[in-house]
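Summary for the steering committee. One of the milestones for this cycle was to obtain a three-dimensional model of the protein with ribulose-5-phosphate bound, which we needed before selecting residues for the alanine scan. The sequence and ligand used are listed below.
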Amino acid sequence: MSSAAEQKTNAAKAALTYVEDGMTVGLGSGSTAAIFVRLLAERIQKEGLNIQGIPTSKATEQIALDHKVPLMPIEHASKIDVTIDGADEVDGRFRLIKGGGACLLREKIIAAASDLMVVVIDETKLVGRLGQFPLPVEVDPFGFTITAKKIFEALRKTGVAKPEVELRCLADGREPLITDGGNYILDCACGEIPDPEASANALANIAGVVDHGLFIDLARVVIVGEDKGARVMEL
Ligand code: 5RP
């Protein structure tokens, strides 16, 4: 196993300690969250736990179904005890960039509805400043070129020196990727986001923006997988 894969597995293993019998658990998206779902399935079977999962994407829903993790529609959940999810970048104040897998909208709805968000990452995701990873912004397809210009201006106004906004396409490079919510993703190469709160607020105020990949004040626990074991950081 590569070092990153090993670190993701170690982070996912450590996250299991945040799950208790009877909990409703938000199931994140991406490769690290997928490992967590598989480990959770093993634990449910071994210990006979009563867990209800709420997936943050159709892809995660399928993984959970394949591994027999019981699922609950989010509309039926009176509360979500804990959500375990990955991230593309995490800074020292637990601010995140998410959406590399195009699932940021459901991920944010579920994280914001959870009593606790636990982030599971490998060491490469820890950064001093957010912005090396292009910031995904989910937009309504209607008028997306206009929305893209507004996003560019909002990022400029909030201190990003030279934002580059690009429509995310499928592997063929021609067709736009469509999210689970039926929207487009605009990836914004920023280099550095000097004031994530200001950028987050400015993006949220643009008509046509459905949501953006800056997750601020949501994560309370970050688990960094290492080659041997994991480091748990709590705010
Ligand atoms: C999906 C996400 C993922 O959590 C993020 O892309 C990290 O994925 P991985 O664990 O595969 O590195 O935000 O929208």
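Key point for the committee: Residues 135-208 form a domain with the Alpha-Beta Plaits fold (CATH 3.30.70.260).
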